[in-house]
Write a structure and sequence with these properties.
Elements lengths: L13 H14 L11 H11 L4 H14 L3 H6 L2 H8 L6 H16 L8 H4 L7 H12 L8 H10 L9 H14 L5 H14 L18 H5 L16 E8 L7 E5 L10 E2 L2 E3 L6 H13 L2 E14 L4 E13 L8 E4 L11 H13 L8
Parallel strand pairs: 1-6
Antiparallel strand pairs: 1-4, 2-3, 2-7, 5-6
Helix pairs in contact: 1-11, 2-3, 2-8, 8-11, 9-11
Bound molecules: iron/sulfur cluster.
């Protein structure tokens, strides 16, 4: 027996926004930034939520605001302190941009956030999505957001069979997002659509039976929900080998160096070392890197720990070796420090370095004292 397809209400339809908002008013999730109109707090939550799960972002958000309750306090902090509070959240360019933008707003905008999406987009690290989120939630500007959750919901509502990263498809999605927006409650509407994508219209097995806007959804009617959005297949990530040196001074302190501010994990501290060049052994890599970074000659001994990490554009395999200083003392432009065990927690380290240090401590509890 042929089942009759349900009748679908076509979009745009003004009822869409009111149905979605009624659902949001009833089901909105409690989050520490919900109900905020302070642009500083809205901005902070939006930046933290990029690439981060809500549960993980919540504790960082609270700690960050305890230490930096105002834009002014963030602007006056050192970058080291900001990075330390950000440690573990990843994508550290976000923290560097927060710090930079806070200083720019305090110094060049009299401490006042620009109040439109267009003006917000002129600030470092604030793209079209973040600008629209801040402008709609904090200032009530009628601008639509389009993040991964919204893309998924819209491509399903319209059952778009085309690959979404194509500019023409993205332009169409931005246009539809704007058409559907509630001009009266743009901030709530944007949050409602993002909540719908996160809670109901999930990447796998969307809960269509609980979806408030199912009557508008072509993909649900056609049974193609899980095939939308259509994405480009991901190319496998290249592998990068890296070596780190565990070097102690006479007092048992570890040598750490600071990464340059611009670049991968910029501003964080690390065990000295670097990425291996093609054909270079780990030991050769360490000898070259230590000379380049801090002008010292080392002898590499046994491997002490290893870890792997997936970063945005490659997969890292990091191996740490016990090393001895053969000649020279640290010098040069790279910031470096001999760090004792009690001082270590003050330094912001990337995930791979932190893991290596934890492993070293497990295997050799008196790591810092033995020399
Ligand atoms: S009906 Fe299903 S696929 Fe369509 S928007 Fe709702 S949850 Fe997503």
């Amino acid at each position: 027996m042929n089942r009759k397809k349900p009748k679908i209400r076509s979009l745009p339809d003004p009822a869409f926004a009111s149905i979605l908002l009624a659902w949001f008013d009833h089901s909105a999730t409690e989050m520490p930034w919900r109900g905020q109109r302070d642009p500083y707090r809205v901005w902070l939550s939006e930046v933290m939520l990029q690439q981060t799960r809500i549960a993980a972002a919540e504790s960082y958000y609270r700690r960050f605001l305890e230490r930096f309750p105002t834009l002014q306090s963030l602007a006056e902090a050192s970058l080291d302190e900001v990075l330390k509070l950000w440690e573990g959240l990843g994508y550290y360019a976000r923290a560097r941009n927060l710090h930079r933008v806070a200083q720019l707003i305090v110094n060049e905008h009299n401490g006042q956030f620009p109040a439109s999406a267009e003006a917000l987009q002129t600030l470092p690290g604030i793209g079209r999505y973040t600008a629209a989120a801040i402008a709609s939630i904090a200032f009530g500007e009628a601008v639509a957001v389009l993040d991964g959750n919204v893309v998924r919901v819209l491509t399903r509502l319209m059952d778009i069979p085309d690959e979404v990263s194509q500019p023409a498809v993205m332009n169409r999605l931005w246009a539809v997002a704007s058409e559907l927006l509630s001009p009266k409650r743009p901030g709530d509407y944007n949050q409602a659509l993002m909540d719908l994508g996160r809670m109901i219209c999930t990447p796998r097995r969307p809960a269509c039976q609980h979806c408030p806007v199912r009557e508008f959804c072509l993909a649900a009617a056609n049974g193609t929900m899980e095939q939308r959005p259509v994405k480009k297949p991901k190319a496998p990530l290249p592998q990068v080998r890296a070596a780190a040196a565990v070097i102690r001074d006479q007092a048992g302190r570890l040598l750490l160096v600071q990464r340059p501010e611009h670049g991968l994990l910029g501003g964080l501290w690390m065990l000295p070392g670097g990425h291996c060049l093609p054909g270079e052994s780990y030991v050769e890599c360490l000898q070259r890197s230590l000379m380049e970074l801090v002008g010292i000659e080392i002898r590499a001994g046994k491997e002490m720990a290893a870890t792997s990490q997936t970063l945005a554009h490659f997969r890292l395999r990091l191996r740490a070796f016990a090393c001895e200083l053969v000649a020279g003392t640290p010098t040069g432009e790279t910031r470096w420090a001999w760090v004792s065990s009690t001082e270590l927690s003050r330094y912001s380290l990337g995930k791979a370095d932190r893991e290596i240090l934890e492993r070293l401590e497990q295997w050799q509890p008196r790591l810092f004292e033995e020399c």
